[in-house]
Amino acid sequence: MFSYIRLGNVLDSRGSVVPLFTEQIKKGSAVTIIELNMTRFVMNATKVVALLLEATEMARGGEVFILKMTALRIGDLADVMVDELAPKYVRNKKEVKVEIIGKRPGEKLYEELMTEEEAVNATKLKILF
User: Fold this and answer.
1) What is the CATH number of domain 4-121?
2) 100 pLDDT tier (thresholds 50, 70, 90)
């Protein structure tokens, strides 16, 4: 029987918006986001390793391990990245616009860590469920 871990969006990974936003800011083009209030659960690579190690130690078979994460508003991430990176790339942060491009079919505005059924059966631990 298998156990598995459920990850959030790993910041600065290949599928992350961080490299995309960085490149857009570097070029001075608009930072494109789906929706200002769109949220995603995020984690860094260090948290991924910590979750993997802890889950591996605890696994007996059949468990789902989920890191306790807070949701991040993508609009806030874009604003912070513009504030921090525009000066680094000799850009006036007021000139770097955030452009809302709208969601694609099937894309969720809000993610959930777990379903209601999973939440009822979840055991709360220090850094994970």
Assistant:
1) 3.40.50.720
2) very high
Sorted by sequence, the CB contacts under 8 Å of residue 112 that are 6+ apart come out as: none
Element of type H or E holding 21 = helix 17-27
Residues in the chain: 129
Q: Where are the domains of the chain?
A: 4-121
Please state, rounded to an integer, the average pLDDT across all residues of the chain: 90
Q: pLDDT digits over 54-63, tens only?
A: 888 989 998 8
Dihedral (CA of 14, 17, 20, 26) sign? negative
d(CA 62, CA 119): 16
Model confidence, pTM: 0.84
* pLDDT value at residue 6: 86
| 29 closest CA partner among 99, 81, 105 | 99
